[in-house]
Structures are given as structure tokens and as C-alpha cells.
């Protein structure tokens, strides 16, 4: 594959069709062949984000795809990020920096300017890399949004990109989705659809093949690959939409078999959850079972309760109270059963929260009482903290461990009477601890292996399971790398990579037919 140059847009027939996974797999598969590859998503809508080395903010999926390429995350890979809030508005990030809040109609009017931003960034990446694999957003068939589109076929037309459509067959109706998505597009957009990929197929592909042959006869486009449903894939490439209540986080079985007691973790599935992937590292620890929950009973009985991040701290705090989960968390603290709060979850543990920033448009007037489990106060400020961080963390008498993570938050601790939980190398004390209640603004903290293991062992002792054993040589980065390689293996084994490379270099076949029918009469 030496000498290959070009770009491709991986679009979807729906949200969560598998675009992020296919992009990551294609990136890794091409990198293995010696191709210099970069990922790109012009516009992402997600509350799952990471901080780049230069202090910018991008969607986590693009950081994951950059990892698949062997690259550090960069704002170049995701120039526009929308973070939905609690009042039908979204926080806009442009080239990694906050650019205000907008409603849906306001944002539509801003997209013309943003098209220049995304096409400039894509052109820059194409100059610096052999291949750029772009990811679309949602469905490419959202014709109500086609005018001014910057993420799907609007980007494909502006940057002259061929498009491969991905569909999730596990949802049912995929052949109709592929046909209908292609047919509903205008002639110029249809001409960019070069082929199809089917994701999450269960069973014998031979049974599916007659349908694929008929689909090709109807559309002129071939199916380039059928990816099997794989229960061993568990690291989320995108955001919390794929993290429903009742879902077990982590591998379907222990990475390393263990015997003896197990630890249960209740990760509270907040309505506006952000950075839900913070619990992935915890879930890879053998003997630790992490489950998304939204009821008080599950919070009470678990060995550890986790309050994750949120894009609307006060709105999600009100939700906790409506469900009685606040009382369950308080009961845990009184019984000295471990509670961990991360970012917005940490802020909820405070005595008071004053948020004139993210709660604009809600019935909020001045400070609001928090859960009161940590003696500190939180005040939100317009300027956002965005930074990668390193430091040390001490748990019990186990000594200090080197740790790293990143911060994304408007809320600040303005007063604290608690013991700091973490020592930031640059900014000093961070987080707080009172007995079994611990909190921090740091995302990614539990990916620090020694710290995570010590934390897990302390939880085990606190809940009366002192003989719980961790695995000393388990490295989360190795687990994550194995997941990326597994995705690449699936793509390499199930997708015609030679055909994909031909599309990257030469674009869609100009002889591909347009699908026309009576319902399209009069459309462009």
C-alpha cells in the first residue's frame, strides 16, 4: 500500500452505526501497512471529550482514533465540538477553544463560517499525511440539515471526498437503511456514495449474501465488508449514548482469571453524563464488576458508588434528589462505604454550588445546597479549565503514586476544609477526601495503574473483603491497545481493504447509477 494518498468519509445510516469503530479500525489497519494516517471529524456532538497536549478540547472518539494511528490527540482532528447542555443549548468548541453557547437554530446560521474552518483543517491534514479517514456525524440522510452541512455530504462535496456508508445490522432493517439513505440523496450526493459496510452481523454471512447481491443490483454499489458482532469489544469509541442503565462496563470476562471475592461498582447513569468512560479503567481490573445504574437500591448495595461527570451539575443533582439517590449516597457515607465523585460528581458532593454559567436558563438563583458530604464550596466561572495534569496521589498508608489525567470544568473549589486527595505538580492541592468519600476534577485518574490498584484494594478493605487480590502487572494502556488491535483485525479480516484503498485514491466510480423513483420527482 505504499504510495497511497487521499481521503475518505465514513458516513452512517444512523447515529451509533459504528462509524467511530470503522474509522479506528481502518486507521490502525493502514498504519500497520506503513501508511501515515490521521483521523478527522469535522463536527462532533458529544460530552465525552479529552484535553490535547496544547490545552484544547476534542471528542474522545477522535482521541481514540488518533491513538489507533499512533498519534497524540490534536484539535486538528476535531475542529468543531458541540457539548449538549441542560437547556436545549450546546456549548461550542472551535479548534479546541470555547466559542459560546448556542441553540439549534442559532448554530445553523453559524455553520457557513465553520465550513471554512473544517475544510482548512482537513486540507492541512491531507498535506501532512498520506491518508485522512474522516468520520461523518449521525446519519448522512438528514436532508432537513443538508443545506449548510459541514460534517457529512456538505463536507464531502466541499473537500471532494468519496463516502462509504456504515449501518448497524443488529438494529434490523439495514439493507433498507442503505438503499433508502442512498436513494433519498440528491444526484450530486449520491455520486459520492462509493460502497457499504455492514456492522455487528451475527450468524452465517452466506445467508446474508443474496440480500447484498440484490442491494448491489438495486444501487450499483457493492458491500465492501461485513463486520461480525464481537462481544470482546467493550471500550467505547464514542460517548455515553452507548452506556444504558443495566449495561455492564468492561470486558465480558476478566482480562486475567481470578478467584476469591469480587467487588461491585455502581456507576450512576446521570441524564447529562459526560466522560462516562472514566470507569473503563476500573472495569478492566479483574474481579471488579461495574454496572450503570439509576436507582437508590443499586447504589446502596454496591461496594463502590461512582458519581461521574456531567454537563449540567445542578440539573443532574436535582435528578438525583428526585430519584432518592442522594439519600442512598448519604447512607453510604454514614456507613463508611466508599463513594467516588469525578468532576461534576465531585462538585455534587460539596456543601454549596453556585453556577451562573452552565445553569443559565434554568430556575436557579444563587448558591444551591450540594450533597454536603465534603466540606467545600463550588463556584462556576465563565472561563473553562482545560489542561492535562500530572501529580501524585496517596491512599491510606499505601504511600504515594505518580498519576496523570486531564481537567475540563467551569466549577472551582473556592473553599475547602477537607484533606486534599491529590497533589498536582503545578497547581498544588486537588480534590478532597473525608473518610470513605473522595472526589476530584481529574478525568482519567484511574488509568494510572498503581494508583488504581491501591484504590481498589482500599475499597475492598473498607467493605470487608480484605482478601480481594489485584493483578500487579495489569496495564490499562496494554488493554486499550489490545482493543484497538482487535478492531483493526476485524476490519482487516472482514473488509476488502484493497477496494477501500482504491476508493481513497480514485474516489467513487463515476459510472455508479443514480437511484430515481417517483418520490424523488422534482428534487435536486
From TrEMBL:
The active site is at residues 343, 443. Catalyzes amidations at positions B, D, E, and G on adenosylcobyrinic A,C-diamide. NH(2) groups are provided by glutamine, and one molecule of ATP is hydrogenolyzed for each amidation. GO terms for molecular function: ABC-type vitamin B12 transporter activity; catalytic activity. Pathway: Cofactor biosynthesis; adenosylcobalamin biosynthesis. This is Cobyric acid synthase. Coiled coil: none annotated. Keywords: Cobalamin biosynthesis, Glutamine amidotransferase. PROSITE patterns: GATASE_COBBQ, GATASE_TYPE_1. InterPro entries: Class_I_gatase-like (IPR029062), CobQ/CobB/MinD/ParA_Nub-bd_dom (IPR002586), CobQ_GATase1 (IPR033949), CobQ_N (IPR047045), CobQ_synth (IPR004459), GATase_3 (IPR011698), P-loop_NTPase (IPR027417). Residues 265-450 form the CobB/CobQ-like glutamine amidotransferase domain. It holds the Pfam family CbiA. GO terms for biological process: cobalamin biosynthetic process. Belongs to the CobB/CobQ family. CobQ subfamily. Residues 10-234 form the CobQ/CobB/MinD/ParA nucleotide binding domain. The keyword Cell membrane does not apply. The gene is cobQ. The keyword RNA-binding does not apply.
